[in-house]
Every structure is written in structure tokens, then in C-alpha cells.
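User: I'm writing a short report section on ligand binding and want a predicted complex to refer to. Could you take this sequence and AR6 and write out the structure as C-alpha cells? A short remark afterwards would be nice.
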Amino acid sequence: MPLHIVRNDITKMEVDAIVNAANSSLLGGGGVDGCIHRAAGPELLAECKTLGGCETGSAKITGSGRLPCRYVIHAVGPRWLGGRHGERDQLISCYRTALALAKENSCGTVAFPLISSGIYGYPKDQALRIAIDTISEFLVENDMTVYMVIFDKKAYRISEKLFDDIAEYIDDNYVDEHTDDRSERLRRMNAFRAEESMYESSACKEADDETASAPAAAAAGKAMSLDDALSRIDESFSEMLLRKIDESGMTDAECYKKANIDRKLFSKIRSDKLYKPSKPTAIAFAVALELSLEETKDMLMKAGFALSRSNKFDIIIEFFISRGNYNIFEINEALFAFDQSLLGS
Ligand code: AR6
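Assistant: Sure. The C-alpha cells for the complex follow:
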């Protein structure tokens, strides 16, 4: 089911099918098309010659010559002409046709390049958004693993505004943590101690006054939160996950698909009460369930993790959750742009 974003040369991908960003002649060209034909050898071109070309927005399938995959799906993306000439619809149709061909040929794993975003000039951030939206829409209904293969870092650019916002957020929070020098920590510790002793003396005074209700309430408060804490400790990650899925009204499948997690991994978590997921997996579920930051931290704690201000991955997650943006693919784009590991399986 899941969509993975990887940095690689698509000709090296050991999947059932790779997709080529071809032109309507299907007779080869530059960019990824050139790489694929060079790696596949003359057999591929010979087969392409029999196809009679292909319309923009559509795709055709062939064998793979010397490539490690089984099929090559040649998809013809639109040239960017400013965005008012149906480019978007053609690009969507390109991905849909390629995915349908992969499905017809029983492919379980497919790798796509970022079609049209090179020689054809489609703005990379828009091309990426269309690719991710169209593929993830397909994956809701279909069992397939899809790789978006990003060749060079420049080809993978979230919008500059988002990039700048995240960079600023990282700077602010990262800097906070790292300028937290010893004197600052001591100051906070002293302030905390002062507060504590104030609480103790006022509690004693109240007890002395025989107005037992306030301290009793405080004690009851403490006991309740202790109970809460204990019952939370008892609940494992897997139990909390299943409870949250039930509370959200989602089905299991809706949740693991939204989390970009494959079914096998979900079944493992489901059947093993003490399963300890990786941190990206735990966060992927928190995002799918649209948990608040506090709940996310709680869920992570159960898997033995925390969100810290001292690493970029955590700060980026916090950036999105605190803004109520739970789009896992958007989060992954951002994580990728900042060289961090991605969410999901
Ligand atoms: N693996 C993965 N991605 C790659 C690779 C690779 N080996 N090489 C390039 N890319 P482009 P288009 C990325 O120009 O814009 C050809 O001449 C590249 O960084 O290959 O759809 C065809 O014959 C970019 O992000 O395809 C057509 O005439 C993406 O693949 C025309 O170019 C697509 O760039 C198609 O242009």
C-alpha cells in the first residue's frame, strides 16, 4: 500500500515496473528516458518501435531489456506551457494510466520518476504535489507499493515558503534548546525550587489552620493523577493505538493507509500487545489519528520515544502537528527536503 519517497537512479530499482518519462514518439530521448534506454539496451527500443507512439497524458507498457525490473511503463507527461493548457489534467492522467497499467499487469511494486519536471519544465513543487496526490488516491483503493524516485535533490523542492517557514521554526526551537546554557538551567531550577517550597509552606499553613479541605483536595488531585498515570502506564502502544482508532471512528484499514503503513506491519502491531514500533511508525499513526501534540507525545512515550527539541526530525513533526496539518505526504516531503527519515513503513 504505501508510498515511499527515495533518492535513487530509477534504472537501479528492483521493482516489478519502472515508469519512464517518455515523449510521444516513445523512441527515446534525454533525461530519465535516455538513462532507461541506455541501461535497458537495444531490445527496449526495438519493442518501443512497435507501439506506434503514445498520446500526451497516456502510457504504454513494454518489457524491460536488461533492467532489473519486469516492465517499463512509458508515460508521456505534458510540456509546461504556463499552466493554462490543461497540463495539470494531463499529468494526473499520466499517473493514473501508468498505475492502471501496472495493476492490469499484476505489479506489486512500481517506481516513478517525477514526470515532466525535467526537460518538460513543469514546476517541480507542483509536479511533486500532483504525483503524490494522484498516487496516494490510487493507493486508498489498491494494494501496491509505489516509490517516488527522486534523482537529484534539486528535483525535490517543497514550496519555498513552506521550506522557509520550517527552516525558521527549526532555527527558533533548535536555538532555544542550544542557548539553554548552564546559568539559564540553574536559574530555572532555582525558580522551580522556590515554587515548590511555596507550595509546601502554604500546604502546612493550611493544615495548621485545620482547614484540611485544601490539602486534602490537593492530595486527592495527586492521587487521581497518579491513578491516571498508572492506568496509562498499563496501556501499551498497541492498546492505545487500537483505542484511538476506535475513538476516531476510522476503520483499521483507513488508519494504516492514512499512516502510510503496510497491512502486514499493522497486523503485527495489532496482534502483539507489547510490539515496539520504530519512532517514524509511531509518529505516522499519531499523524493519521490527528492526535494533539500532547497525545502524540503520550503515544510516543509508550513506544519508548520522546519528541525533543534537539533534533530536526522532531521539530519538523512538531511544526506540522502544532499547525493541525496532518497530511503525511506533505510532512514526508518536508522531512525529505531537510534530509530526515520519512514517516510510515
Ligand atoms: N532516475 C530517476 N530520475 C531521473 C533520472 C534517473 N536516472 N534521470 C533524470 N531523472 P526528464 P520530463 C529525473 O527530463 O521532464 C526526454 O527527452 C529528473 O531529475 O527525464 O518528463 C523525453 O524523451 C526529473 O526530475 O523528463 C521527453 O522528450 C525527472 O526525472 C522529455 O525528456 C523527469 O525529467 C520528458 O521530459
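A remark for your report: The two ends are 10 Å apart (CA to CA). The first strand starts at residue 3 and ends at 7.
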